Amino acid sequence: MFQQSHHRHYTQIFLFALIGLFGVVGQTWALSFAYVANFGANTVSAYTIAADTGVLTPVPGSPFAAGTNPISVTVSPNGAFAYVANMNSNDVSAYTIAAGTGVLTPVPGSPFAAGSFPRSVTVSPNGVFAYVANMNSNDVSAYIIAAGTGVLTPVTGSPFAAGMNPLSVTVSPNGAFAYVANAVSANISAYTIVAGTGVLTPVAGSPFIARPGSSSVTVSPNGAFAYVANTSWANMTSDNISAYTIAAGTGVLTEMADSPFATGSFPEAVTVSPNGAFVYVANFGANTVSAYTIAVGTGVLTPVAGSPFATGTFPYSVIVSPDLAPAAVSIPTLSPIGYILLALALMVAVTVQRRRHSC
Question: Which residue from 69, 125, 128, 219 has the least number of CB within 10 angstroms?
Fold first, then answer.
C-alpha cells in the first residue's frame, strides 16, 4: 500500500511537471520593439523591449538608414510596417518590420514623395491609410497602404489643403476623422475620412480656431475630446492647451468654455493616457511636463497635484505606455509542438497507472 501510494504520488508529480514544462515551452511570447527617428544622423534606431524590465536592446543592424532629417516615426497598428517622415528630403521612408527581430527592411519603392518639409506622420487605426503633415507646402499627403507589402500609393486628390505651417496630424480612434495643427494660422484643420478611399473632406466649419503656435494635436481614446498644444511662435506667446469636444457624427470641434488651459513655456507635444483619464504636455522652454486630469463627460482639464514636473533639458515629446489602459485578460496557449508533448505526457501517465493496477 505504501509503495502504491508513492507510485501514485510520483506519477502525479511527473505528470504536472511535464504539463507545466510544456506549457511554458509551448507558450508563444510576442516581442515588442521601439523605434527612434534620429534627426541629425539620418537614421532610425530600433530596439527590442524586455517585457519584464522595459530595458532596450539594439536590434541587429540598427540604426537603419532613413532620409534627410527624419523627424517623425510611427508603426502600423498590426506592427508590420514603420513609416518615417524625412523633413529635408521631402519624403517618407517605409519599412517592413521582421516579426521575430524588429529588423527594418525598406519597402519596395521607398522612400515615397511627400510635400515640402513633412513634419508628422500617422497611420489610421485600421492600418489602411497613412497621413503626413507638410509644414512648408501647407497640406496633408494621404496614402493607401498595401496590406501585404506596406507600399504607399497616393490617395486620389492628395495632397489636401491645410492651414499655414501644419506641424502635427492625428486620426480619431474610430478612423472617421483627421485633425491637423497649423502653427502660423493658429487653427485646426478637421476632415472626414472617406472609409473606402482615405480621401479627406473638410468638416463643416473647419478650420477651428486655436492659438498661435499650434504644434501638436491629439484625440482622447473615446474619441470625444481633442487637445492642442499651443507653443510660442513668431513672437507670439501662447503657452497653453486648446480643448474641444468632438461631435460624434460630424467631427466638428467645439472649444470648451474654460479653454485654453495654461501650460509651461513652449509646449511642444500633448498626449492622452490610454485609459483617457489624464493629459500630459512636454514644455520645451520650461524643462517640465504639465499633467492634468480629464473630467469625465466634459473633458475639462484640472492640473494634477504637484504639476508641472521636472524633466531634462528641452523636452520635445511625451507619450504614455499602455499600462494605464483597461486590463486585458490573457489566456496562455500552446504551440502545436506543445500540444504533441502534452499528449505524450498524458499517454505516459496513463501507461504508468495501468501497469501499477496490473501489479
Answer: 125
Tell me which CATH homologous superfamily contains domain 33-161.
Answer: YVTN repeat-like/Quinoprotein amine dehydrogenase (2.130.10.10)
The pLDDT tens digits of the residues spanning 212-246 come to: 889 999 999 999 999 999 997 666 678 999 999 99
pTM for this prediction: 0.82
Superfamily of domain 173-333: YVTN repeat-like/Quinoprotein amine dehydrogenase (2.130.10.10)
Angstrom CA distances, 237 to 73, 175, 310, 358, stand at 28, 33, 22, 90
Give the residue ranges of DSSP H helices in 208-313: none
Residue spans of the domains in the chain: they are: 2-10+16-23+337-358, 33-161, 173-333
Q: Which residues contact 323 (CB under 8 A, 6 or more apart)?
A: none
Question: What is the pLDDT of the chain when averaged over all its residues?
Answer: 85
As to burial, measured by CB atoms within 10 angstroms (0-12 exposed, 13-18 middle, 19+ buried), residue 175 is middle
Q: What is the DSSP string of 95-120?
A: EEE-TTT--EEEPTT-SEE--SSEEE
**To 10 degrees, what angle do helices 2-26 and 336-358 make?**
170
What's the half-sphere exposure (Cβ side, CA atoms, 13 Å) at 210? 40
- 138-173 in b/e form (b: 16+ CB < 10 A) is bbbbbbbbbeeebbbeebeebbbebbebbbbbbbbe
Helix (H) or strand (E) holding 267: strand 267-272
Residue 77 cell numbers, joined: 497598428
With H, G, I as helix, E, B as strand and everything else as coil, classify residue 226.
strand
